[in-house]
Design brief:
With 129 residues, the protein is of the alpha/beta class. 41% of the residues lie in helices and 18% in strands. The chain has helices at residues 11-23, 34-43, 60-68, 86-95, 107-117, and strands at 3-7, 27-31, 48-51, 77-81, 99-102.
Length: 129
């Protein structure tokens, strides 16, 4: 089973993303900021990261820079944020994001991007096959 780390300081957003991803059959772990996310990464590998930008202690940009600097297998990362400026997107990619999505994200759009980045296809019901 593929593992996804959802990193966002808003509990409602984490719950929303978790419900979409678990419906697709993924194992989801949560972190409330970049520092906690780095602790989760040290505990085990993930297949994908879903990262917010604005968080206390260590923001999404800082988390991705730290992650990408580690000598370990690298998984794709989707930056999901309310920040819609071109500069925010540029900073996300420079930090190591593979994709940038502006919140709120529709469930089918999130599912499509996650499945694509993981090299998976949908069986027509939304579940990976």
């Amino acid at each position: 089973m593929k593992r996804i780390l959802v990193i966002d300081d808003a509990a409602t957003v984490r719950l929303y993303h978790r419900s979409i991803l678990e419906e697709l059959g993924f194992e989801v772990t949560e972190a409330v900021n970049g520092l906690e996310a780095l602790e989760r990464v040290a505990e085990g590998d993930f297949d994908l990261y879903l990262v917010d930008i604005n968080m206390p202690k260590l923001d999404g940009y800082g988390f991705l820079r730290e992650l990408r600097g580690k000598d370990m297998p690298q998984a794709p990362a989707i930056m999901v944020s309310t920040e819609a400026g071109a500069n925010d997107q540029k900073l996300a990619f420079l930090s190591g994001a593979n994709l940038y999505i502006v919140k709120p994200v529709r469930p089918e759009r999130l599912a499509s991007h996650v499945l694509t980045l993981l090299g998976m296809t949908s069986n027509g019901r939304g579940a990976p096959s």
